[in-house]
Amino acid sequence: MLNTAFTAGTDSDEGNLNIHREEFYKAISELKSQENCINIVLGHHSIKCFKSRDQKIIQNNFDDYNIDFYLCGHIHKGGYDYDLNTGRLIPAYSCGSCMVDGYATVTFVIGDLDLGAKKVTLTYYKWLLEEECWTVGGADGRKAISGTINLILERFKNDDSFVDVDINEDEFRRFMMEFHEKVAKTSIEDANIDPRDVFDKFHNMKCNKSVDKQYNSLCRYFPIIDEIMESSLLTQIEKESIPNIVISEYNKLIDNFTNGNEIIEGIVENMFKEYSTSFKYSNTILKTYFKILVYWSIYVCDIFNDKK
Which of 134, 156, 178 is the last residue of a domain? Predict the structure, then answer.
């Protein structure tokens, strides 16, 4: 429950409310571990009633601490609002009023939550004054024309875009040596090697669960990379060439995308465009090899420490 009335009570609440930031953060941060639960916040005022700086704080904390949607009132009309600025869709739904006047819409809403499928169905009902009965409808917005809004919770959407590929380890070794030979003459900067907890990196960069799945699948090939990196056949410059390519691509893309998933895919695509003509592997295999190198670089290098 969010106490939105902390500074309310004036004739100009809209856009002027404040939130007790420390208490809000203290309360909502306890939900960090509740990734498998459906988390709903209730409040009287809509998020837009707060000052713009507090709106951003509320939205970012909803995103960071596993809030799935927000239910509110105050505006005396049924409707919805979708925040698209946090990287994850976090909808807010407002109920109408129980008072008949020249402004309010007399509505109520019934929610049907499917815990297994992680889906929500909201059905609005409005009071017909002259007919003196209830009917479906009453919420503003095109998505609510039928009176029913269906929502698949963003945090639980499945991403099946990645198919686990069981690669040939000897072939991957050959690719690594070929790639080293290809990039050995590339102009590079010193690599900043500084390992971090990779799953904290994925969380901070707003990666979805498919990234964890990909990483867990592909990290089993890291020892092959380490084996080659430790080889006495390579100079120090040659050993740093591959991570520097990934770091360079990361720095190019960090400000162009809203989450880590897009950045990883962007790095792989850029590497593929640059080097695909130098190898005879299939496109699928080559992109998989590049993705292994990207994940390995995320693990060993000082990248993906930013927050989206």
Answer: 156
The C-alpha atoms of residue 37 and residue 18 are separated, in whole angstroms, by 28
| Residue-level pLDDT at 165 | 63
Please indicate, yes or no, if residue 252 is contained in any of the structural domains: yes
CA 65-156-207 angle, to 5 degrees, is 60
pLDDT of 270 reads 93
pTM of the model: 0.51
Q: Which amino acid is at 190?
A: D
Rounded Cα–Cα distance for residues 302 and 308 (Å): 16
> CA 297 to CA 292: how far, in whole Å?
9
Work out the percent of the chain whose per-residue pLDDT is above 70.
Answer: 90
Write out pLDDT tens, residues 92-101: 999 888 877 7
Q: pLDDT digits over 276-291, tens only?
A: 988 888 888 899 999 9
Same domain, 184 and 108: no
Cβ neighbours of 271 (radius 10 Å): 22
- Which position has the token pair 């929502």? 151
Range of the structural domain that residue 118 is part of: 21-156
DSSP-assigned states of every residue in 179-217: HHHHHTTS------B----HHHHHHHTT--HHHHHHHHH
Work out the pLDDT band at 164, boundaries 50, 70, 90. Answer: low
Q: Which of 249, 243, 257, 226 is nearest to 302 (CA)?
A: 243
The answer to whether position 256 is within a domain reads: yes
Is the domain of 126 the same as that of 25? yes
